[in-house]
Design a protein that fits this description.
Blueprint (H helix, E strand, L loop, with lengths): L2 E6 L4 H10 L5 E4 L3 H4 L2 H10 L2 E4 L3 H10 L6 E4 L11 E2 L8 H7 L2 E3 L3 H15 L10 E7 L4 H9 L4 H5 L2 E3 L9 H8 L6 E7 L5 E8 L9 H11 L6 E3 L2 H5 L15 E8 L4 E8 L3 H15 L9
Parallel strand pairs: 1-2, 1-3, 3-4, 4-6, 5-6, 7-9, 11-12
Antiparallel strand pairs: 7-10, 8-9, 10-13, 12-13
């Protein structure tokens, strides 16, 4: 049986990425609305209620409004917005993060796609909190750099439009300087932290790709774990997961640089442990594509799991 998929918000950056991954698949029927129809509440409502799975690629308020229009109890939803990432009744769509992640997504009618920053941070932090190497009340800092596509259409235009001041002047810039970012609630809640991490994101002049970094002073952690202890916990957290790779300590030790565009165009994520054992310090880094494993690729992975298909189908 061919599953009927409706992407609400298919003209946005994430929606286009998802549609590109699904377009050639014979096992799916993609429902497409003309631009005029997308603005017709009646037509849109019928599309939402006729689909087997709806993928929402909308701003938060619009995503909540779309959910309110779904009356058919058989319609399942993947929400790529921030609206439901810590909401009750929603499975968190980072399958690899917890032991029951795949089963929870497969059984759920409501799945919330993670944020790109949260995906990188949680991949590093959650296993260490769960293992007790990072206490839940430890003061955690996370920073990194993302391609400008992470800001959606407005930021893409800002960086690419020739008459924009950013087009001429900006190479890299920090943002969320008020220490409030929409991904922080899921970062704290899904990591199991008592306090919000101090988050310092930057965006730079490249389209896609990102590095998310969790620096740790190992001497300040209870038990003073070694870099090998940290690496072992991460490696044991993702055995056999085709889209998450924990790079070996020896390989990481040979690296001199790490390119934020390393996995641009990919649906995978790589985790690195860079260490100075004498100083008792590590830099834990997740490399991923903010539009791949950080958005569209994750949505397709969740769709596959919900349909009972191999998770990498179409990826």
């Amino acid at each position: 049986m061919t599953a009927k998929i409706f992407i609400d918000g298919a003209a946005g950056t994430t929606g286009l990425e998802i549609r590109e991954r699904l377009a050639a698949r014979a096992d799916l029927q993609l429902v497409a609305l003309a631009e005029a129809e997308r603005k017709d509440a009646g037509v849109r409502g019928r599309a939402l209620n006729a689909a087997d799975i709806v993928i929402l690629c909308l701003p938060d308020d619009a995503a909540r409004q779309a959910i309110s229009l779904i009356e058919n109890p058989h319609v399942r939803v993947i929400d790529a917005s921030t609206a439901h990432r810590v909401a009750d009744g929603w499975a968190y769509g980072f399958a690899e993060l917890e032991a029951n992640g795949y089963d929870a997504i497969a059984a759920s009618s409501r799945v919330s796609n993670p944020g790109c920053w949260a995906t990188g941070f949680l991949a590093l932090a959650r296993p260490l909190v769960r293992a007790g190497l990072i206490p839940a009340d430890f003061p955690v800092t996370v920073h990194g750099v993302s391609g400008y596509s992470g800001g959606g259409k407005s930021m893409i235009e800002e960086f690419e439009k020739s008459d924009s001041p950013v087009f001429v002047e900006t190479v890299q810039r920090g943002y969320a300087l008020g220490l409030s970012h929409k991904h922080i609630p899921e970062m704290q809640a899904r990591a199991g932290l008592a306090h919000a991490p101090l988050f310092a994101p930057t965006v730079a002049r490249f389209y896609r790709g990102m590095l998310v970094e969790l620096p740790l002073q190992l001497w300040a952690l209870p038990g003073k774990p070694s870099p090998r202890d940290i690496h072992a916990v991460l490696a044991n957290a993702y055995p056999g997961r085709p889209l998450v790779e924990v790079v070996g300590l020896d390989e990481a030790a040979k690296m001199k640089t790490l390119d934020a565009e390393l996995l641009a165009g990919s649906n995978r994520m790589k985790l690195f442990v860079f260490a100075n054992e004498a100083a008792g310090q590590v830099r834990l880094v997740a490399a991923l594509d903010n539009l791949g494993k950080g958005a569209g690729g994750a949505a397709v992975q969740n769709l596959n799991i919900m349909l009972g298909l191999p998770e990498t189908t179409g990826l």
